[in-house]
From TrEMBL:
Lyase listed as a keyword: no
InterPro entries to which the protein is assigned, alphabetical: PP2C (IPR015655), PP2C_BS (IPR000222), PPM-type-like_dom_sf (IPR036457), PPM-type_phosphatase-like_dom (IPR001932)
Source organism: Miscanthus lutarioriparius
Official protein name in the record: protein-serine/threonine phosphatase
Pfam families from the UniProt entry: PP2C
Amino acid sequence: MKETSATRNEGGPAVCKAVAGGGGDVDGKGSASARRRRRLELCRLGRAAEGSPVPAKRIRSGSDRSLSADSSLETTAAGCWPSRLSHGAVSVIGRRREMEDAFAVALSFLASDPSSAGAKDGSEGEQEQEQDFFAVYDGHGGARVAEACRERMHVVLAEEVGLRRGVGSDLPWEEAMAASFARVDGEVTGGFAPPPKPPPQPAAADDDAGAGNLPYRTVGSTAVVAVVGQRRIVVANCGDSRAVLSRGGVAVPLSTDHKPDRPDEMQRVEAAGGRVIDWNGYRVLGVLATSRSIGDYYLKPYVSAEPEVTVVDRTEQDEFLILASDGLWDVVSNEVACKIARNCLSGRAASKFPESVTGRTAADAAALLTELAMSRGSRDNISVVVVELQRLKTNSRWSSLLRLN
């Protein structure tokens, strides 16, 4: 895994963090004119994808008819596939003043837990170890809870999974995810205990000097977590970040946003004694624009940290998985995001725009989606994680163009 960081100033600070896995990289070089040309080409590609006809079971524009070979996938043994071929992540501050997003990637994260070692023998146990953890955390009120989730969530989940091994034939993922989210939520809110009294500070000391000793009572974060294994994908979501799976060219949402105006969420908030107020958008108590999050002690019990968990079996049509914060989803639909990522991973984007798109890795796809969100006017932090599940084949036409370039 390679990690790079860069900063830029276009109408304000724009801090960018990128991680590429499986041989992927993110190229941060290029002149201003090249960046402008890249944004224009992204807009053209995004409009083409958004305006394409959407059949019931397949998403494909009329210009894609020559890509029938591109739609075919490399297959493996029935019922079992590599957990991932490559992965890439990009996180940028965007047009915000502060960076409050975070993401986490922990490959084979169950193997690092001592309680998991030797829990099961044979090939089934080995396959369970080959599970990778990916997550996006969108903080609000500060970055502390998002950063705490980045450091702790995969560790806590590995412990909870280890405690539940051997109970039944399948791991109770819903129970393990719920327990993990509850534990991390308890850690960042101080276990709902009264806040400790900060030590006395000299008069000349910085006002924020003792802030690090206080629990994060007014800070919170959404969390979308994906565990990708050889046989199934497990997604847990708490908030309005989102996970979308591309399956056979169709965008399949694996999570549902927790918005205060969602009927069941509004009913839950009101049943707990809270209110949903339309104050520049629907908000819990007129404050928070999401009805579930980790942290936000001062809004409990109206804002819940309980995740919704989705477990899907892997199929030979699974192509890639996208996790992102609402900085992407506020301006890019599921279908357009999958279209852009698919064009990148198949090599079509690099062949059509060789001066601005140089690769076809998951990191390149994450970078393209981030730049598309910026070009469409996203005003939030933007974090995108792309996990390549199967290699998309490129037909002879595009392969020849790639070789010439």
